[in-house]
Amino acid sequence: MLKLFKNINFKTPKIKKELQRLVGFINRFKDFIPNLSSRITCLTRMIRKNYIFKWSDKCRKSVEKIFYGLKKKSKLFYLDHTKLFGIFINESDTIIGGVLVQNSKLIGVFSRKLSSTQMN
Question: What sequence ranges are listed for the domain Reverse transcriptase/retrotransposon-derived protein RNase H-like (predicted)?
Fold first, then answer.
């Protein structure tokens, strides 16, 4: 087991599609985040049809607390090559990130900003 999440970050969503991606990425960690559904209510509410998208300070703080909790408490487990595992990837125009899980245990995480060449 290894400690993790030294530099995971998020891009502030500007449109609903980016917000959906962020919520999807956060949901990948639902097994590691207690009370996740109540913690992201302000985010999931904005995804609804006919709801006006407006990023607020409350939403920003909610996401920051989730990411802080992941950075502080998350642990990595070693991959067992004899068992199935899942790879989940999330991307935006400027950032890419992903998670490797096995049996609801976090194996690895990556995120990085894309270079200008990669963005084209």
Answer: 55-120
